[in-house]
Design a protein that fits this description.
The protein is built from 10 helices and 14 strands. It is an alpha/beta fold. The chain folds into 2 domains: about 220 residues, 3-Layer(aba) Sandwich (Rossmann fold), CATH 3.40.50.300; about 70 residues, Alpha-Beta Plaits (2-Layer Sandwich), CATH 3.30.70. Helix 3 runs parallel beside helix 5. It is elongated.
Length: about 300
């Protein structure tokens, strides 16, 4: 089997703004055709700058970006025509009708009129009933839907979603992810930035973590959770204790629940978890427990620990 071709190739990408702020520092990244790639990072980490450079909104200070083989500066039009962008800010023509806005967006990219495609996009986003409404009459969630429709009007092969579900209702979020899955099935490559880590956990094939303008990690989601995930064993004690007995110091246990619980963290990659030994040593130390439970770290825990380590 061939390795999947890259939809986007980024090499040595840097961006320094006139005030001296370095938003991107030598970023290298390949995004595979047909994948959902989630870019995670705290505010100001460089996520939006990276997207803006690839989409031709911000000029890079150094490095190269190719979109399906087209250099974003030399072959700007060819590169940009393959991309749909749903930016963070709501920017839509208030006085136009929904359907006119979406048709205009298609025309901007020089695509011939295709009423069937426009209707399909509007129906997929539950906008068909509102097609003749002026955009200014819509709620914030509906305006967000219009922006997605505009981004899809010219049938892009690559879709950028920059914080797409910030401040939208649960129903829109659900609709949107349904649509993202359908787009991916039709071969569209999707890059999303999000604060909602559970979204990345549910949707993404691969995760990139950016912090202070540097890409600190790119990994398959499942591998990432497996590699960096920790498991915790929580033991409910019969009697509360004030401190962990010295005989159990080697296990680096934590007390929780006002001394009624002992928490043991172990590595899922380790050959031995040490649980059997711990339980034996607890009995020897005179600690009795009535219940036990295990918890696995989420992507959020991993993300927080990575960014903390990088800071």
């Amino acid at each position: 089997m061939h390795a999947p071709a890259s939809a986007i190739e980024i090499r040595g990408l840097s961006k320094t703004y006139p005030d001296g702020f370095q938003a991107l520092k030598g970023v290298d990244l390949d995004i595979r055709s047909g994948e959902i790639f989630a870019l995670l990072g705290p505010n100001g980490a460089g996520k939006t700058t990276l997207i803006s450079v690839v989409c031709g909104i911000v000029n890079p200070s150094g490095g190269t970006v190719r979109v399906s083989g087209h250099d974003i500066i030399r072959d700007f039009r060819a590169a940009r025509s393959l991309i749909g962008l749903v930016p963070q800010e709501l920017t839509v023509e208030s006085f136009e009708s929904v359907i006119a806005t979406v048709k205009f967006s298609r025309g901007l990219f020089g695509k011939p009129r295709d009423d069937a495609h426009v209707e399909k996009v509007l129906r997929d986003l539950s906008l068909w009933e509102k097609r003749d409404n002026r955009v200014m009459e819509l709620s914030g969630g509906m305006k967000r839907r219009v922006m997605i429709a505009k981004a899809l009007a010219h049938e892009p092969k690559i879709l950028f979603l920059d914080e797409p579900t910030a401040g939208v209702d649960v129903e829109l979020r659900r609709d949107m992810w349904e649509m993202v899955r359908r787009l991916r099935e039709s071969g569209v490559t999707i890059i999303l930035t999000t604060h909602y880590i559970e979204e990345a956990e549910e949707m993404a094939d691969r995760i990139g973590v950016i912090n202070n303008g540097e890409l600190i990690l790119v990994e398959d989601k499942d591998k990432l959770i497996k590699k960096l995930g920790k498991k915790q064993l929580v033991l409910d004690l019969h009697e509360p204790i004030a401190e962990v007995p010295g005989a159990l110091a080697a296990y680096a246990l934590e007390l929780a629940g006002d001394g009624c619980q002992i928490v043991y963290t172990y590595d899922t990659q380790g050959e031995r978890t040490g649980i059997t030994r711990l339980l034996n040593d607890m009995t020897t130390a005179g600690l009795r427990f009535k219940d036990l439970d295990t918890k696995q770290s989420s992507l959020e825990d991993i993300f927080v620990s990575l960014v903390r380590k990088d800071a």
